[in-house]
Task: inverse folding
């Protein structure tokens, strides 16, 4: 696969994943789709906006850069081809790696600690001491009275963020390699359209 086509595929995938992360983070702010819960009733990891900032905006940048690197070069097929855009994509992909790592670390921590919920008339992180073992014991999930279904809500959305950020890290790493090859070798598509 030529570097331009690969960059375009990676870029479109990153843009899609970033939108998924932004949506998941927005849903975490409204447990069960209700806005009645105050700032004090939502977990710190939700407020760190890992899905919105790390997996979202910080991935949108390398995604768009990769899509642009997959287009025709700034000078067409001659001159530098796509080398300039590929070089920009290298720096954007490194930035995206940081965003993906941030999203993964915050989301992983949120899964390990569990949500903030009301149990035994106390708002706290009641599953913190279980070190994530509550994930395998669904009978404990119903112990959180308020917000209703918060454990299922958080586990589902943070698991989605973990999966998406892992894919983002993988794709940003792939684009780093692809763009580096593109800087040194150019885009093979310019040869495809050349007369024989």
Result:
């Amino acid at each position: 696969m030529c570097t331009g086509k690969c960059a375009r595929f990676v870029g479109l995938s990153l843009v899609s994943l970033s939108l998924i992360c932004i949506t998941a983070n927005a849903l975490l702010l409204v447990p069960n789709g209700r806005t009645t819960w105050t700032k004090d009733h939502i977990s710190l990891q939700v407020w760190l906006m890992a899905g919105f900032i790390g997996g979202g905006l910080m991935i949108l940048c390398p995604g768009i850069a990769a899509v642009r690197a997959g287009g025709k070069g700034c000078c067409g097929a001659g001159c530098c081809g796509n080398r300039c855009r590929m070089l920009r994509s290298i720096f954007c992909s490194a930035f995206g790696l940081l965003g993906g790592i941030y999203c993964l670390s915050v989301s992983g921590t949120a899964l390990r600690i569990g949500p903030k919920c009301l149990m035994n008339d106390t708002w706290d992180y009641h599953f913190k001491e279980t070190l994530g073992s509550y994930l395998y014991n669904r009978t404990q999930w119903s112990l959180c009275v308020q917000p209703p279904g918060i454990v299922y809500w958080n586990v589902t959305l943070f698991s989605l963020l973990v999966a998406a950020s892992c894919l983002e890290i993988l794709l940003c790493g792939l684009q780093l390699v692809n763009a580096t090859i593109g800087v040194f070798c150019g885009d093979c598509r310019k040869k495809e359209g050349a007369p024989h």
In short: The chain is about 60% helix and 5% strand. Helices lie at 3-28, 44-47, 50-69, 83-113, 150-185, 189-192. The first helix runs from residue 3 to 28.
